[in-house]
Design goal:
It is found in: Cell membrane. It catalyses: di-trans,octa-cis-undecaprenyl diphosphate + H2O = di-trans,octa-cis-undecaprenyl phosphate + phosphate + H(+). InterPro entries: UppP. Its EC number is 3.6.1.27. With 276 residues, the chain is mainly α. It has one domain. Helix content is 78%, strand content 0%. It is built from eleven helices and no strands. The chain is globular and about 60 Å long. The two termini are 34 Å apart.
Length: 276
Amino acid sequence: MEQLWLTLKFLLLGLFQGLTEPIPISSSGHLLIAQYFLDVHIEGSVSTFALLVNSASLIAVLIIYREDIKRLVVNGLKYVTVKNAETKRDFMFIVYLVVATIPAAIIGLLFQDAIDNNLSTIVTVGLTLIVTGFGLWWIRNMHGQRKDGSLTMTDAVIIGGAQAIALVPGISRSGATIVAAIARGINQETALRFSFLLFIPVSLGGAILSITDILNDDNLASMAIPYLMAFIGSLVASYFSLKWFMNIMAKGQLKYFAIYCFIVGPIVVLAWLVLN
């Protein structure tokens, strides 16, 4: 019975992470909230769990954006020999994704441990959710006109910087990058695509850095089924959550996520103050 409950809990955690990963409310922040207020703890290795659920979200992104990825790869390689407007656009899109990955990679390598040790707190999450809410509220009525072909190196650096800030729990990665892109006058479709294609190298990089932790996980064999259920739950939830969020973006309804952050953030802070 204990193993059954453990498996069910990991399935629910995977579903929860997958649901919150694509939408701009911070999946890492919400996992901290769940662990603190609901007394839900991750048995086994936290690194293994994080790798599995993030990899599942990555697969969902790859499935949904597979045509865009295929086009970028084909045209990016073709640009070496065939230089036209289409191949240049896609080649530069890849360059901008690489550039936008650099800030988070540097900050993560230098300060991730410090962030985890000092900022992975409930108070931080509550306050940063409010910050995320203000960002989303700021761009709620913006309708940029710039598309893939009009992206610039400045855009890439600013969006990459926003993604680096999102290493702090409670700052949504998708929210921060989309806010930065839309604030730069980029239209919602391109902002969303750039944000989630940018998730690919970040997720892959995190997976590579976690390989050693996974290999040293003494609980890997005994936790195989719970880990698997977390992976499946995250994959399914990430896929449908991202599809839903794409529809929300198309309708320009980001304000509802801002309102959610304005409600949950103060409640988390006040609850922490009462309990402590």
